[in-house]
């Protein structure tokens, strides 16, 4: 097993990576927890066995449509019937959608109940389950309602990846490719367990320096501004990791439009994302530029005008007040190359 610590002083926690890592779950749960509320979905390849605790399982719907306030209310009412107390624990078992929902439910129940995540997808392991960002969607946009609520521990059991659908693998690779541009590391050269652990280390270091996304943590959203807009505009027909891959290329083209990087650096983005990671880098057809502009303006980073994470001479950084005409011009060229 590989262990990575997310260093947050007295709230630090371990991320355990390896085949059979779910065997470490009981050790990560708070000693005070007598009741365990397991939040999961149908067909999740890992099950929870905690014979010394009272376990109740809550199965939520699949897809981004179930990542909603209605789902949170259903869980809350279930917690109430279970008699879950602040000393107990919520365990999210599934991909990023499950851990986002389970984390938000835990953050809200009794104004804060412990949560432990058991991630079952590559995307969840390298990103969603780490760092304490939780939330649900609204029709107006993705992840607009949520809370920062750090888990007490995270399990990344590689056995869960054996049955992962190809599309879910692509989603994980889309998020993983982001780390290449943040660090320059050749993650694909590493064995899978080390690759996942390295992504966790990168994210843990950023989270420790800016837990509540006041500045540096927004770097982890590289490629996400357009990605979230594409997800919403396509009613999530384009999944998160797929959209991030497309968003990375647009971010590079926008940086070039603004004179921040040269054409060779844009080509490097295409080579890495499409060539090395094998991901689609063109947007879906029939996207409306005006709709995308509205959705990007609702991005959580956008406090005053359009905000993007962009590459530049000093590396990737958060750029505020990006001129709308430049964004629109780059986006119009980008969208016309769609399928």
Task: Give a short overview.
The protein is α/β, with parallel strands linked by helices and 339 residues long. It is built from 11 helices and 11 strands.
Helix-strand blueprint:
Layout: E1 2-6, E2 13-18, H1 25-28, E3 35-40, E4 54-59, H2 69-82, E5 89-94, H3 96-108, E6 114-119, H4 122-128, E7 133-138, E8 141-148, E9 153-157, H5 166-183, H6 192-209, H7 224-233, H8 240-257, H9 263-276, H10 289-297, E10 308-310, E11 317-319, H11 324-335
Helix pairs in contact: 2-3, 3-4, 4-5, 4-6, 5-8, 7-8, 7-10, 8-9, 8-11
Task: Summarize the structure in words.
The chain is α/β, with parallel strands linked by helices and 339 residues long. The chain folds into 2 domains: 2-173, Rossmann fold, CATH 3.40.50.1970; 222-335, Dehydroquinate synthase-like, alpha domain, CATH 1.20.1090.10. It has 11 helices and 11 strands. It has helices spanning 25-28, 69-82, 96-108, 122-128, 166-183, 192-209, 224-233, 240-257, 263-276, 289-297, 324-335, and strands at 2-6, 13-18, 35-40, 54-59, 89-94, 114-119, 133-138, 141-148, 153-157, 308-310, 317-319. It has a 7-stranded mixed beta sheet with strand order 1-2-9-6-5-3-4. It has a two-stranded antiparallel ribbon with strand order 7-8. A two-stranded antiparallel ribbon has the order 10-11. Helix 3 packs across helix 4 and helix 7 packs across helix 8. The longest helix has 18 residues, at 166-183. The protein is globular. It starts with a strand and ends with a helix. The mean pLDDT is 95.
């Amino acid at each position: 097993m590989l262990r990575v610590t997310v260093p947050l002083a007295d709230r630090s926690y371990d991320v355990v990576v390896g085949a059979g890592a779910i065997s470490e779950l009981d050790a990560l749960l708070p000693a005070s927890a007598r009741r365990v509320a397991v939040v999961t979905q149908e067909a999740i390849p890992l099950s929870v066995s905690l014979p010394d605790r009272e376990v109740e399982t809550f199965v939520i719907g699949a897809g981004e449509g179930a990542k909603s306030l209605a789902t949170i209310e259903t869980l809350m009412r279930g917690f109430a019937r279970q008699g879950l107390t602040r000393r107990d624990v919520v365990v999210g078992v599934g991909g990023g959608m499950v851990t986002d929902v389970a984390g938000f439910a835990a953050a809200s129940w009794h104004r804060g109940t412990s949560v432990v995540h058991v991630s079952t997808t590559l995307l969840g392991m390298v990103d969603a389950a780490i760092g304490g960002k939780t939330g649900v969607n609204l029709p107006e946009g993705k992840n607009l309602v949520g809370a920062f609520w750090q888990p007490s521990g995270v399990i990344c059991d590689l056995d869960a990846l054996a049955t992962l659908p190809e599309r879910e693998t692509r989603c994980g690779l889309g998020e993983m490719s982001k780390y290449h541009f943040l660090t320059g590391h050749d993650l694909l050269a590493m064995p899978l367990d080390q690759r996942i652990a390295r992504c966790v280390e990168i994210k843990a270091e950023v989270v420790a320096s800016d837990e509540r996304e006041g500045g540096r943590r927004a770097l982890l959203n590289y490629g996400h501004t357009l990605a979230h807009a594409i997800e919403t505009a396509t009613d999530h027909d384009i999944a998160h990791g797929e959209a991030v891959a497309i968003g990375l290329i647009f971010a590079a083209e926008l940086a070039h439009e603004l004179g921040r990087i040269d054409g060779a650096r844009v080509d490097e983005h295409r080579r890495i994302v499409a060539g090395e990671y094998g991901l689609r880098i063109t947007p879906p057809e029939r996207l409306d530029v005006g709709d995308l502009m509205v959705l990007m303006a609702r991005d959580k980073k956008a406090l005053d005008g359009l905000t993007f994470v962009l590459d530049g001479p000093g590396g990737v950084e958060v750029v505020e007040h990006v001129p709308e005409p430049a964004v629109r011009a780059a986006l119009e060229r980008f969208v016309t190359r769609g399928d």
